[in-house]
Amino acid sequence: MIKIGITGGIGSGKSVVSRILQVLDIPIYIADDEAKKLMVSDPHIKKSLIALLGNQVYLDGQLNKKLLANYLFAKPEHTKEINDIVHPRVKEDFLTWCEKNQECPIVGIESAILFEAGFKNAVDYSILVYASEEVRLERAIKRDKSTAELIAKRIAAQTPDREKLLLTDFLVYNDGNIAILPQVLFLLQELKKTI
Ligand SMILES: CC(C)(COP(=O)(O)OP(=O)(O)OC[C@H]1O[C@@H](n2cnc3c(N)ncnc32)[C@H](O)[C@@H]1O)[C@@H](O)C(=O)NCCC(=O)NCCS
Ligand SMILES: Nc1ncnc2c1ncn2[C@@H]1O[C@H](COP(=O)(O)OP(=O)(O)OP(=O)(O)O)[C@@H](O)[C@H]1O
């Protein structure tokens, strides 16, 4: 089995790439969805988040997203603190999920913070979905009905693409000018050669 990691900054289009891979029968673990589930179900994560942010980090058993987002995106130390609580458990969960999908020749994980959260050594190949910061900002503002200021804070919480480019094995260029389907199909062809 080959494990691939799909990453890219906010608004790069990694969910679109993951969706294409899923349609092509490649199971993808969506780290953001699973992290959100674990943040309300995992006793160790809950205990650590409450110790750091107080009981109000949960409201009626649900994550207080506003409080968490305000803390997480305020400064890099905060981002690291939260990621260090949440993502080791996500990684463990991903590896268990991989065992359950043993029969699949290729499986993937989608995470905006594949490198930051230490998933690189859990995958065989990483794929960076790339679009310029300007394009990503515009897409994220539109998708999340947000503001440039708030999205810029999220961009600042993620490793810049110039650093990710040095760590990645493959690149999918998604600036809106080059079709992504042929790029994904080519990528799969290359990956299959390694099986
Ligand atoms: C902070 C939270 C509550 C904000 O929720 P909200 O609905 O406002 O935003 P949403 O979840 O749609 O996130 C939008 C984007 O922000 C970025 N982002 C989210 N969490 C992080 C993080 N820990 N580090 C860097 N960027 C992040 C991602 O690009 C994400 O797609 C939420 O993002 C969250 O629970 N984050 C922790 C889980 C996580 O680390 N997910 C991202 C990596 S897999
Ligand atoms: N090539 C494209 N042309 C136009 N719009 C696009 C393109 N790729 C993605 N989008 C749109 O941009 C937005 C962001 O894409 P997507 O949700 O896949 O990003 P993401 O990398 O998963 O971001 P996040 O980290 O925030 O989850 C979506 O609304 C998506 O439909």
Write the layout of secondary structure elements.
Elements: E1 2-7, H1 14-23, E2 28-30, H2 31-41, H3 43-53, E3 58-59, E4 62-63, H4 65-72, H5 76-100, E5 106-110, E6 125-130, H6 133-144, H7 148-156, H8 161-167, E7 170-173, H9 180-193
Parallel strand pairs: 1-5, 1-6, 2-5, 6-7
Antiparallel strand pairs: 3-4
Bound molecules: dephospho coenzyme A and adenosine-5'-triphosphate.
In words, what does this structure look like?
Helices cover 55% and strands 14% of the residues. It is α/β, with parallel strands linked by helices and 195 residues long. The mean pLDDT is 96. The chain has 9 helices and 7 strands. It has a 5-stranded parallel sheet, sandwiched between helices. Strands 3-4 form a two-stranded antiparallel sheet. Residues 10, 31-32, 35-36, 65, 68-69, 72, 79, 82-83, 86, 111-113, 154, 157-158 line the site of dephospho coenzyme A. One of its GO terms (biological process) is coenzyme A biosynthetic process.
